[in-house]
Structure formats: structure tokens, C-alpha cells
Amino acid sequence: QSPKSTLKDMPFKFGASVSAELLRTNSSYKALVIKEYSSLTAENAMKFWALHPLENTYNWKDADEIVALAQANGKRMHGHTLNWYEVPEWVTNFSGDTQAWENLLKTHIQTVVTHFKGKVSSWDVVNEAIDENGGYKNTIWVQKLGTDYIARAFQYAHQADPSALLFYNDYGHDYNPVKRTAILNLVNGLKQRGIPIHGIGLQLHTRYNQPDEDITSAITSAAATGLLVHISELDMTVNPQSDANLTFTATLAEQQAAKYKFIVKTYYAIPKAQQFGITTWNVTDGDSWIPGTYSRPDWPLPFDANYKRKPAYQGILDGVK
Ligand code: G3I
């Protein structure tokens, strides 16, 4: 790849999750987002608690700003996420009967999908419904509506926008075979029932020393469903042991680059028609969710905190050579 290459030159969509606030306030961040990516996901702005903070209040501002940036720059906009266990307090405290809960589920999904129709071309309909031991997470949605609410969530989204591509999104495909199998059983079951599901999102919050065979299992088993495959939240900790004194050495940078290259190479080997794309979670090491969440130094992304390309960036480009 010549030096002028950007991630937009990749043979499949390459995206990032973005923050509306950083796009508003940080010109270096905004410039990098415009220059490098062909797809955007809102890191938080399209979540239930962000869009629908009170029962009769929708807050479109941040999400609309991200959508407008995507449209102005010819980028795809992927919606995250119509249904998840993270809900605002009014939902947690909602005291309706089963029919009222079903209406709550349907109304949120259809109001949101309708608002973004024609601008958001794909959705994470349900996010993280399967737990570590392969069962369903005991979320408020399962408690109130039973596990088959998942199928109905996809149907509600499809009714609101028949052209939108609908995904089931989760994490752990690389390091938890029990959970991976349960996820695949869920999506294959939905597909076989004729539920309108089009894709599977592998978050792939992975680590620099995750064995290659785990990465291969995650990606190829997802492709075996025949659905679109989105690596939807890719980042790569180089400090899984949470060493407070770790420094980002050249060796770690090269190891990270090699693993990014392997992930991209493996993804590029699945059938072309299933290559929905790769999205990193956040843009630079400076805005990654990982250091703050785990209270540790970490350098998970292809750009450093000064918006400079790291060896991982070249590793990504090399993955499709
Ligand atoms: O903006 C509010 C602020 O108004 C409020 O005062 C404050 C206190 O509650 O919260 C702020 O919201 C925070 C939000 O990030 C925006 O900064 C939430 O506390 C915080 O929990 C939220 O964290 C996000 C997390 O999802 C939970 O929604 C992270 O930024 C985001 O990177 C992370 O992303 C998730 C994906 O959606 C799903 N897969 C895993 C991934 C990493 O956890």
C-alpha cells in the first residue's frame, strides 16, 4: 500500500465508533474520522438511554450530528443498538403488564428505526443477550417478555425499515467457545425460523496474545452461518494483565501489529459477499474505553493518542495485501 493509503482504501468497509462530543470539540479527532473511515457507529448516542431518556422524551441531537457527518462524507452509518440490557431508569422502574412491556419494546425500536430510516442502513438489533455459560443473560427483557423477545425485536425493526440490514451483536467469540456456540445456535435458529436477521456482529474486544486459532474459530464459525459478518467493535489490549507500570514498547507494538494483520487476513478470507466490514471501537488510544474502564494503561487501537498511525495501522493494510 502506498503511503497515501487510508483505511478507506480497504476492500471492505472499515469503520470506527465515534463520540458526538469529540466530533464537536476536537478538530484533530474529527479530521481523522473524516479522512480514514468508510463507516461510522455511534459509540453511545444511539443507545436506549441516550435516545429515549424519559418515557415521552426522545433526544436525537447527538445521533443526528453523527448521521449528518456520515452523510456529508459518503460514509455508511451503522446503528448501535436497538435492544440491550443497558436501559434508562424509567424502563427499569416501568410497572406495566406483559402487553405494556411488549409495546415498550416495539415502540422504542420502531420509533428509532423510523427516525433514521434511509440514513442508518444497518442495526445491531439485539446486543449481548447470551451469557458466559451459554445461557441467556437474565435481563429485564427476558424477565418481562421471555427469551423469544429477541425474534420479535428483529421483526419490529424489519417492519419499520424492510431495507435495513439487521444484526445480532455480541462478544467473546474468540475466547469463550461455550458462549460462541450458544450465539451461533441463536442466530442459526432465528435464520431457520425465517426471522429477518441478516448479519452477526463479533465485537472482538481481543488481546495481542489471543491465539491465532481462537481468532480463526471466531471468524470462520460466524461465516459458516452464511450471514453477513461484521467485526463490530475491534480493539486489542496489550495489557490484559492490567500491569499499572506497563509501557508500550516497540516489541508490544509489533506484536499488536502482527495480530491485527492476522485478524484482517482471516476476515478477508471469508466469502466476499459476507464481508460487511470491520469497525474498531473508538478511534485512538486516547479515546478508547479500555484504560478508563479497567483503570490501567493500554494502547488498543491503530492510532496513538496523538492521532498518529501505529504499526498496527500498517498491520491492517498488510492484512489485505
Ligand atoms: O453521558 C453520561 C453523563 O450525562 C452522565 O452524567 C454520566 C454518569 O452516568 O454517564 C455518562 O454516560 C456514560 C457514557 O459512556 C458516555 O460517556 C456512561 O456512564 C458510561 O457507562 C458509558 O460507557 C459506555 C459503555 O459502552 C456503556 O454504555 C462506553 O463509552 C462505550 O465505549 C461502551 O461501549 C460498549 C458497547 O456499547 C457494547 N459492547 C461493549 C462496549 C465496551 O463496553
UniProtKB/TrEMBL annotation:
It holds the Pfam family Glyco_hydro_10. Keywords: Carbohydrate metabolism, Glycosidase, Hydrolase, Polysaccharide degradation, Signal, Xylan degradation. Its EC number is 3.2.1.8. The keyword Signal applies. One of its GO terms (biological process) is xylan catabolic process. Belongs to the glycosyl hydrolase 10 (cellulase F) family. This is Beta-xylanase.
